[in-house]
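cron nightly-structures :: item 1 of 1
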Amino acid sequence: QVHMVESGGGSVQAGGSLRLSCAASGFTVSKYCLAWFRQVPGKGREGVARIVPDGSMSYADSVKGRFTISKDNAQNTLYLQMSSLKPEDTAMYSCARYTSCANGYYIGLLTRGQGTQVTVSS
């Protein structure tokens, strides 16, 4: 079966760090566009970072320089290293797999995880 399961969320003070993991099963992470999103209740889902098969990465302006997306093909796992966290980073973070990501667009949602909550206090 195809799954993406996030972990690593929690509560942290502003300025702190967290590393989120997204364990994938049923497919090979190296072959797809993978992305992290976040969502706050009452607001739309925001793309945070994505990584494509050739390893190229891109980030939302709001997290550039603070967050790093990576993947471990051997572990079939996607990561999001978050540093210098701010209260406005508080959200439910989820990972997703797409057929492709091109020119800023996400094409063909295939799988999305249930999410892990990140809460940053001031």
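cron nightly-structures :: done
The chain has no helices and eleven strands.
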